[in-house]
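so my prof wants the structure for this chain in the tokens format not the other one, which i didnt know existed until like an hour ago. anyway here's the sequence
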Amino acid sequence: MIKKARRTARAAGVACVLTLALGLTACGSSDSGTDGAGDPQAALEKGGTITVWAWEPTLKQVAKDFEAEHPKVKVKLVNAGTGDDQYKALQNAISAGSGVPDVAQIEYYALGQFSLAKSLTDLSGRGAGKLASSYSPGPWNAVEDGGKVYALPMDSGPMALFYNKDVFDKHHIKVPATWDEYVEAARKLHKADPHAYIANDTGDAGFTTSLIWQAGGRPYGVKGTDVSIDFSDAGTTTYAKTWQKLLDDDLLAPVSSWSDEWYKGLSDGTIATLATGAWMPANLVSGAPDAAGSWRAAPLPQWKAGDPASAENGGSSLAIPEKSGKKDLAYAFLEYADAGAGVKSRIKNGAFPATTADLKSKEFLDAKFDYFGGQQANKVFAESAANVADDWSYLPFQAYANSIFNDKVGKAYSSGTRLADGLTQWQDASRTYGTEQGFNVGK
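here's what i got, hopefully its the right format
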């Protein structure tokens, strides 16, 4: 995704999704047919109009190209809101039984709340299962469950460490290979310049779970309506102990990501690193243009030296709502956008692919980033994608869980609450909510 702003979930909309997921009828329902018997090619020849709800900007060109290749087809691209705003609108349309789009962009963490509610079409009958090897493990694991494929990966966010080389060189700081070295680099930098910080962090659910994922933590277990939530595992503990050192010594800038102050810090060197997804370069180019040439990309620091591991941070899929009346035509667009010619168009316009062929192509790997001083940064990102473990699970109500993160874990960034205690509070609140929604919640 070109911009990964963190958002707050609408609890009521999430609860409605979960009500549907557990077989109740409070949100309403209705049926709709399909446009054929699983024959996308026939649907293309027949033509028609499909409505695509998405906020991702590179899809504009993809839609134009798709229409040019298939003159009988019209793609109506609608921005119904970003992230949770769109999910609320989508759920309202599903509940009302009208106005449901034929295709919807859904971030990986939010897929479960719709698939469990049987609100998404299983694409495996249209051949999507055969595409498994076409995608990197993290994104594919997010769209596939129990042999059913609920979406096709649109992009991915394998993590890397973006760092300001000029700042590191000025203070003779070595690029950290481990998180322990990262803590030491943070101390050295802040001592040399009290106005400079290794990073900013005011509490972010997605960032936290991504680092736990990288550390080998698996706090979430999901099997249908059976859910486990446990933030006491070894990986989570490792993350919490290390990050607590940064909090204890005030080594993190108290600046919110995506704010004007954040962009200023990235521009003037007072925020020296970002550990985030490979979609970040376009945001640096547009948000911190004055720092062009200063930044570089490096592998994410490791929790254990010599044991490469990474994680995803962000990324979206394209799914077909069950109530779409044009599923075959919609699937033809999905294949084009996420597995066909549309992928190269999106890469050209700044997206980071989830397709292994593109991640391995010489053209992609050899591409030079002017912003990073001519560095072939895609080589770093592609290696990260290959090192993402594919056994991570999100909660079926992850959007709600994320929305209460700052009420619980966020206290560790603004008061004397220990990070581990904040995670326990988040765990307990998430368990309570899941139980209230009718899930079988355990440790």
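also thought this was worth mentioning. The chain has two domains: 11-156+314-360, 159-311+391-442.
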